[in-house]
Amino acid sequence: MDEQGVCEQGQSTQARPAATGTALAAHPPAPDPVEGTLAASDSCAADPRPMMEPERRAEVLLRLAKAAGQVQGVARMVTDDRYCVDVLTQISAAQKALDGAARVITRNYLERCVTDAITSGDPLIYDELMKVLDRRR
Predict the structure, then answer these.
(1) How far apart are CA 84 and CA 59, in angstroms?
(2) To the nearest 10°, the Cα dihedral for 122, 43, 130, 124?
(3) How far apart are CA 70 and CA 82, in angstroms?
(4) Terminal CA-CA length for the chain
(5) Where are the domains of the chain?
(6) pLDDT tens by residue, 27-38
(7) Each residue's pLDDT tens digit, 77-132
(8) Residues 72, 55: Cα–Cα separation, whole Å
(9) Which CATH class is domain 52-135?
């Protein structure tokens, strides 16, 4: 790559080292709510049950750990001045890993929060659900 990030032809492509499948050791605290974020529906937020069952939480954390490893690998590739197409391929893989985590979380949201809100007659859940689905596009 030259100084402007343009790839030169003829650079060799090398396989990216495999990311480890270890879970994240420390979990940062959840960010403070920011403007434009959705509050959990009253029925879901007030429920004493955990937001996710332990098995589902473990699945999400594993997917996030894999995505984090892929992102770190992408940073190494950029540092090592790797071929742009290879870097873009790994960025796509990291995005797919995050999408996989988002799918699991979305399913959890539908099965738990949305179902509970509909059952309890909360009419605001439909607006919240539409905003969530719009963000996932």
Answers:
(1) 31
(2) 30
(3) 15
(4) 32
(5) 52-135
(6) 444 444 444 445
(7) 999 999 999 999 999 999 999 999 999 999 999 999 999 999 999 999 999 999 99
(8) 26
(9) mainly alpha
